[in-house]
Amino acid sequence: MDDKHWYQTAVFYELNIRAFCDGNGDGQGDFLGAISKLDHIKSLGVDAVWIMPHYPSPLKDDGYDVADYYGVHPDFGTAADFKAFIDAAHERNLKVIIDLVMNHTSDQHPWFQAARTDKNSPYRDYYVWSDSGSEYPETRIIFLDYEKSNWSWDETAGQYFWHRFYHHQPDLNYDNPQVHEEMFKVIRYWLDMGIDGFRADAVPYLYEREGTNCENLPETHEFLKKVRRLIDEEYPGRVFIAEANQWPHDLLPYFGDGDEFHVCFHFPIMPRLYMALKQGNRRVILDILRDTPAIPAGCQWMTFLRNHDELTLEMVTIEEREWMWQQYAPNPEMKSNLGIRRRLAPLLDNHKGKWLILNGILMSLMGTPIIYYGDEIGMGDNIALPDRHGVRTPMQWDSSQNAGFSAADKTYFPVISDAEYGYERVNVANQENDPDSFLSATRFLLQVRKAHPELQRGEMEIWETADKSVFAYWRILDDERTLCLYNLSAEVQSVSLHFPELAGQGKLIDLLHEGRSWTLNDNIPPVLKMRPYASHWLHLARR
Ligand code: GLC
Fold first, then answer.
1. Separation of 260 CA from ligand 1 center, angstroms?
2. Are 432 and 398 in contact (CB under 8 A)?
3. HEC states along 336-404?
4. Handedness of CA 502, 503, 506, 511 (dihedral sign)
5. What digits encode the pLDDT tens for the residues 108-134?
6. Test site for ligand 1: of 51, 166, 201, 306, most ligand atoms within 8 A of the Cβ
7. Is 243 a catalytic site residue?
8. How many angstroms does the Cα of residue 142 sit away from the middle of ligand 1?
9. What are the φ and ψ backbone dihedral angles of 124, each rounded to 5 degrees?
10. Phi, psi of 401 (to 5 degrees)
11. Residue 204: DSSP 8-state
């Protein structure tokens, strides 16, 4: 694998600077704090870090409401601290990508302030205005719990403005070429600063066209291709990653002919992993894998279990959504928009076997996995906090005050302190030397993945065993092959390892359970007895 394609085999970590570590004792995480914890990130075995928006912002949407594209939020530190973070990460051989929020700004951004106060300002046309607020009626509302319309009236401007998210996040007008130029400037600015790429936020919504749902429009792809050209020509080796919460056939165009995004998040597979686990049936995973198209050379999927948002159920059917809510959001407080605002460990009942299944799949199925901060220790959530804040609480480092996150009296959100997930129990220090901890398991899975290139970039071949509760696939790269198996049920499953074509070639060694192996040279195939919710990665050790 040449270095230019590093993102195809990397493992990423999603870092929330505000939540990670408070370096200056003001109760908010910052870059200096995060630098002091880079060794933790490195110790997991990840290769790259995505940091959530770090820009000056009123933080009404945790920084996705950008007020200045060129700055660093004062709570997080200075431009020098940002640069020091990038350097410290690079010293450890960790790449850093940042969030690029192109679709909208905060209403506090000077562009919007100028636009609303002066009809003749050149910035007026940076946004999308209407006298009636009746255009584009086929466009869905994304933040359903909070917004009634994608148009909001602005008293000062005397017009409606368009917004796909909160009403304080006016959409930029990509019909204005000046907006393109502004974004190119922003992109160059941060790439010049030495970052390794972008996670581009909310890209399907850049343009509006009457008679469409205003998503995935050809004009949007055209603009995104221009961004990619800029990156390739001026900053080769940097990566452009799409957040496009869409069905596979709508996602494919975001790769273009290998000339748009390098990487796209695979949204539809994520809820189906939870669904299959709860149903004890692999069917929905197989269905979505069948619907997942091949992607151009040089491209990659990004897979995830959780992130800073709600567990989105946009990419499932209405019936499936209802079912997921019943199963995973028994308390209506756990619902948010079209999703579930809970963290990984609580979703999985803090069950180690279930946790290993989903993480095992994440680390071996396909694509570039990303871990959400805190999930490596099985952090809990706080549904008493509004919006998606409950999954953005302070990282739990140790059992000291504020979980070792901050020396302040008060932190930006309270640390989790309930009996099961409270910081006194669930923290990095406790798990550090415990071989049975989530933290040790995370490190172990990443280590095994790293040692076996077929798990990173092998061909994937589904193996349909007799019982539907066993999900299994081979990863094959040249002569290397590993069979990954998961028992999605609470029953013991016996799997006959019947591979006549491999007879006499060696034995299958379990990479996840030391000392276990199955020889393939008999006429009678060996049987793998899978315990409830067991995971196995069987590597073919050739004679
Ligand atoms: C993306 C972000 C989300 C944010 C939204 C609006 O979906 O992941 O957190 O609220 O965009 O910027």
1. 21
2. no
3. ECCEECCCHHHHCCCCHHHHHHHHHHHHHCCCEEEEECCHHHCCCCCCCCCCCHHHCCCCCCCCCHHHH
4. positive
5. 999 999 999 999 999 999 999 999 999
6. 201
7. yes
8. 10
9. -55, -45
10. -50, 140
11. G
In this predicted structure, which of 14-23, 55-64, 414-423, 512-521 has the lowest mean pLDDT? 512-521
Beta bridge partner(s), residue 530: 493
Map residue 179 onto helix, strand or coil: helix
State pLDDT tens for residues 119-177. 999 999 999 999 999 999 999 999 999 999 999 999 999 999 999 999 999 999 999 99
Tokens linked to 32: 């200096």
Catalytic one of 14, 61, 65, 201 = 201
Mean pLDDT rounded to a whole number for the chain: 97
Tokens standing for 204?
Answer: 């399907």
**Does ligand 1 have an atom closer than 6 angstroms to the CB of 14?**
no
Q: Scanning the structure block, which residue is given the tokens 């205003």?
A: 214
Q: How far apart are the first and last CA of the chain?
A: 27
Measured in Å, residue 192 CA sits from the centre of ligand 1 at: 25
Read off the amino acid at residue 349. D
Q: What SS3 string covers 30-44?
A: CHHHHHHCHHHHHHH
Nearest one of 262, 304, 363, 353 to 44, comparing CA atoms? 363
Token reading at 335: 């619902």
CB atoms within 10 A of CB 118: 13
- List the catalytic residue out of 30, 47, 65, 243: 243
Q: How far is CA 51 from the centre of its chain?
A: 11
Helices then strands (H, E): number in the chain? 16, 22
Yes or no: say if 162 and 149 are a contact pair by the CB < 8 Å rule.
no
Sign of CA dihedral 424, 425, 430, 432: negative
| Euclidean distance between CA atoms 109 and 225, whole angstroms | 26
62 is catalytic: no
- 139 DSSP assignment: P
Please report, as a single letter, which amino acid is at residue 383: I
Q: Which two tokens stand for residue 377?
A: 């220790």
pLDDT at 523: 76
Report, in this order, helix, strand and coil percent for the chain, each rounded to 5.
Answer: 35, 20, 50
- The C-alpha atoms of residue 339 and residue 274 are separated, in whole angstroms, by 13
